[in-house]
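TASK: fixed-backbone design
INPUT:
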């Protein structure tokens, strides 16, 4: 891959001016779906009309990272004691950062479900268990990325569960079984090292 520098010149086809000379400069570039912008990346700017004409390949990782940073708010209604389970489990793994770990913990299990390391049939059993039978009176709010949304819908499809909320509920019950109940929590080494990455 050719690396370009700020101030380098090139030629490219501008949608307004046709074939033009361009200069590489730092710009904020909106995503193609207009859902946000990538700030300060090198882009090829038309010398005639000053519009962004091309994005060098070297900027792709930055664009991907920025795109995955865009978070959407998601809400799941769960029984009150589910929130407590999540909190207990997080504190059991690392009592210094405690609840901060709730979301990474959910995502950790979501990923294990999606990759088949944890079987979704267990989730179905847990959702039918006595511990699950309570009204969903609390809201669990999460800021999630598109990647997480995709994993959730993939798990819904694979597992035959009804919706995202059921997946989240099932995961919390699985967390109870794995982390809160046993003398020694499952995956504790791995989870502790995940906790350690939170500065
Ligand atoms: Zn132009």
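OUTPUT:
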């Amino acid at each position: 891959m050719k690396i370009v520098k700020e101030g380098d010149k090139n030629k490219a086809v501008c949608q307004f001016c046709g074939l033009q000379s361009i200069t590489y400069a730092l710009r904020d570039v909106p995503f193609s779906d207009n859902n946000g912008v990538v700030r300060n990346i090198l882009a090829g700017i038309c010398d005639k009309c000053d519009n962004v004409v091309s994005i060098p390949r070297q900027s792709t990782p930055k664009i991907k990272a920025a795109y995955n940073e865009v978070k959407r708010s998601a809400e799941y209604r769960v029984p009150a004691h589910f929130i407590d389970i999540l909190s207990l489990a997080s504190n059991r793994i690392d009592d210094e950062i405690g609840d901060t770990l709730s979301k990474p913990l959910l995502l950790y299990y979501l990923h294990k479900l999606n990759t088949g390391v944890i079987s979704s049939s267990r989730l179905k059993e847990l959702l039918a268990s006595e511990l699950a039978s309570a009204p969903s009176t609390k809201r669990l709010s999460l800021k999630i990325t598109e990647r997480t949304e995709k994993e959730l819908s993939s798990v819904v499809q694979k597992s035959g569960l009804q919706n995202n909320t059921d997946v989240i509920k099932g995961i919390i019950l699985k967390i109870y079984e794995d982390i809160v109940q046993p003398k020694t929590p499952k995956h504790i080494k791995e989870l502790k090292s995940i906790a350690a990455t939170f500065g």
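COMMENT: The first helix runs from residue 60 to 69.
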